[in-house]
Amino acid sequence: MKVTIEVNGSEVSDEVEDRTLLVHFIRDNAGLTATNVGCDTTSCGACTVLLDGESVKSCTILAAQADGHAVTTLEGLSGEGELHPVQRAFRDQHGLQCGFCTPGMIMASVSLLAHNPKPTREEVRHGLEGNLCRCTGYHNIVNAVVDASGQEVGR
Amino acid sequence: MIPARFTYLRAASVDEAVAMLGQYGDEAKVLAGGHSLLPLMKLRLAAPGVLVDITPLDGLRQVRQEGGDIVIGALSRFHDLHGDPVLAEHAPLLAHVAGEVGDQQVRHRGTIGGSLVHADPAADLSAAVLACDGALVVSGPQGRREIPAAEFFLGPFTTPLEPDELLTEIRVPARAGTGWGFEKFRRRAIDWAIVGVAVTGTSVSLINMAGTPVRATATERALAEGASLADAAALAAEGTSPVEEPHASTEYRRHLARVLTARALERAAG
Question: Of B192, B178, B173, B205, which Cα lies nearest the Cα of B248?
Fold first, then answer.
């Protein structure tokens, strides 16, 4: 079937199999590879993108279901040469180790902050339950989200 | 993992969805949020030949009050329900439980209707709707029919829905000001409940203590007869049939049911 998805503000149209998952459309058809396939079972959150502004796991959505909708990936968060405030905070707070989970963590954090601009540390942990970091670097990830929200980073 | 091949159809109305289901019968499955169905398909535990996508039916994504009932569209997502002011006032148990399902991303996509129809005995909302004395409204070629939640869950992943019927609404009695409690025990944040308890007023439902969500009838009877919360909670596992699994024995589950029921009853009373 033909699928047209607005990816980071640009329309991407392609003929795909009905069973194509959104994450594969993003990586293979739109050519954007920041979005990782991690567990592929709706657990780890590495494939998190925004669909119509809400964080979703793109391994568990058909490209066909996103037809006519808008997707934002990590690549679409900021302009040329700039960092989004959440990206900047992840860098400043060393909120990553190997970096594999980072795109998903950042997209989930952006969505979390959109709903709750000043989360407590506990609320950050609850909001990021759907994202796993195999380096177990959660402490600095929480620091990064608190920092991005403009709050003092308590340790 | 990629699902086996299927044909994707998109329904533009309830009637069209029902007609598509009628045409393909057992071969077809309804696709809503997809967060139960697509994982099964990726694991090849399900391989429907046709998916009927009802995601675009926005009319089924709303909560409204109708007389003494709260009517929840089947396509309402967990995130919608968690933040819904009507639900928060008149069925606060459901609003709370919707915020405890899965994780943020799952709640943005998963639907209450999909969860109920999937009929997993470990599902949070099935037990909550059962505790609320809810009813499920389904549309089929013969029109609409209403099935009480108490008659909807027949066994693990088994409901009385016909292949050409579509769940469209969930109705629960409006009960503003009713005390409620919800507890679930799981190993990790996003795991299914090993055991859970949903309480509203003096109605008590158990998660994962049988092949379906069940009412803790002995506890409810004791409460009606004036027993203390602790004494009533001690009866929570009566008549249940929890499964034996490597990470939770039958006896451990019975213990959890008693402890969690006590906590949920205290929360509801407080």
Answer: B192
Distance CA B191, CA B180 (A): 23
User: Where does chain A hold its CATH 1.10.150.120 domain(s)?
Assistant: 85-149
Q: How far apart are CA B141 and CA B153, in angstroms?
A: 22
Q: pLDDT, tens digit, for every residue of B4-48?
A: 999 999 999 999 999 999 999 999 999 999 999 999 999 999 999
- Residue B82 has which token pair? 């968690």
Its ipTM equals 0.96
Question: From chain A, which residues contact B within 8 Å (Cβ)?
Answer: 1, 17-21, 24, 40-43, 45, 48, 51, 54-57, 60-62, 64-65, 108, 111-112, 126-131
Contact B5 A65 (CB under 8 A): no
Q: What is the tens place of the pLDDT at every residue in B47-87?
A: 999 999 999 999 999 999 999 999 999 999 999 999 999 99
Domains of chain B: 7-53 (3.30.43.10), 61-172 (3.30.465.10), 180-269 (3.30.390.50)
CATH 3.90.580.10 fits A85-149, yes or no: no
pTM: 0.96
